[in-house]
Amino acid sequence: MGKFEETRPNSRSLFEELVQPYVRFLHKRLGVDYTFIEGGKEHYFTGMMLKKSRITLLDSEIVAYPTTQMLRNLLVAQVLFRGQKLCLMTSHFESCKDSAEERMRQLQLVMRKMSEAPDDVTVLFGGDTNLRAAEVAEVGLPSSVCDVWEQLGRPLCCRFTWDTKYNTNNNIPVNRHFRFDRVYLRRASKDGVPQVDPDSMGLVGLEKLKCGRFTSDHWGIYCRFSAE
Question: Which parts of the chain span the membrane according to its record (predicted)?
Fold first, then answer.
């Protein structure tokens, strides 16, 4: 799960691996204040929550990954926030080491979609990419797109979002860690449009629940942005 915020909490949140019982729970508890967008209906899927009082949903779409073997897709929402156009994207890329080729195809599609957005739109992508560093290096990022973690100076506190040394949900006996969950930003380039910059990044979900398990086997990402 990743959260994208500017100064006050819970403006917009992106989720991975939602299931219908939890979606119904969220609607019941938060449906008055939030707009929900779902990337599917069956198995598990991605989703977004948008604060109604602050964000206006203009349009949304689900973009299929043509060669996925795991029913993965890209969820896209066009929104207005304080009069500024934003394009929000989230996805859960193909899982497991052997799916590297498919993951790279999915990354290429996301980067193309981000690059093709109109120049007066700021694009934010956040999700569980399952990417390894070598895969990102092979595909490469467009010059207009930045990795927010790198933009912030690669803070060590957010270096790994999947870490079996500290997250025991999967009971993996060896210590392994990856930065599977990533946030990408493509700023609007049109003259006069405010420039969005990342201010900070942190991890959430680091404390165990009363049942003795973490909320997820991944840590969540919490980001703050500002616009000038």
Answer: none
**Domain architecture of the chain: domains with CATH:** 51-227 (3.60.10.10)
β-strands 45-51, 73-81 pairing: unpaired
> Residue 228's pLDDT is what?
85
Cα separation of 206 and 65, whole Å? 31
Structure tokens given for 76: 């896209």
Annotated active-site residue in 33, 120, 128, 217:
128
Residue with tokens 């109604």: 52
Question: Six-digit token pair at 213?
Answer: 């398990």
**Element of type H or E holding 106:** helix 100-116
Joined together, the tokens standing for residue 179 give 């930065």
CB 3 within 8 A of CB 220: yes
128 an active-site residue?
A: yes
Q: What is the 3-state secondary structure (H, E, C) of 134-164?
A: HHHHHHCCCCCEEEHHHHCCCCHHHCCCEEC
Instruction: Confirm if 94 and 70 have CB atoms less than 8 A apart.
Output: yes
Residue 28: partners with Cβ closer than 8 Å, 6 or more residues away: none
The mean per-residue pLDDT over the stretch 195-209 comes to 97
pTM of the shown model:
0.94
CB-CB contact of 171 with 213 (8 Å): no
